[in-house]
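tokens incoming
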């Protein structure tokens, strides 16, 4: 059993900032990777940023230095600090984790339900 819960979405003005959080809980042995994805209506889900257990980060090309992904290994929590938000950034943001579960050898991908971000004046 692995639970992934996102929070922090809401309505922001263009140019504004928002911080998203993702809490992972359950019978987790280890977390190999965490990532933020986003999906707008009628569009394909795309990766926003990823972070490995070693702290390595990779950002989507559209981020353009405006976002920062981070993690708290003690709390099993991941964050996405978003600055200079644009209307095109309006989407449902999803947390994805790649974990090992107690008693199992293989990795499992887990998704949260998403948190909605609206960027509008």
């Amino acid at each position: 059993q692995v639970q992934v819960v996102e929070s922090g979405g809401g309505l922001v003005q263009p140019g504004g900032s928002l911080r998203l959080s993702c809490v992972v809980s359950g019978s987790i042995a280890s977390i190999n990777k965490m990532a933020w994805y986003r999906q707008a209506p009628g569009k394909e889900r795309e990766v926003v940023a990823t972070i490995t257990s070693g702290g390595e980060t990779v950002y989507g090309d559209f981020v353009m230095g405006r976002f920062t992904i981070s993690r708290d290994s003690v709390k099993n929590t991941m964050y996405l600090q978003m600055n200079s938000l644009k209307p095109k950034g309006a989407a449902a943001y999803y947390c994805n984790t790649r974990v090992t579960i107690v008693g199992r050898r293989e990795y499992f991908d887990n998704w949260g339900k998403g948190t909605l971000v609206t960027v509008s004046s």
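note: The mean pLDDT is 96.
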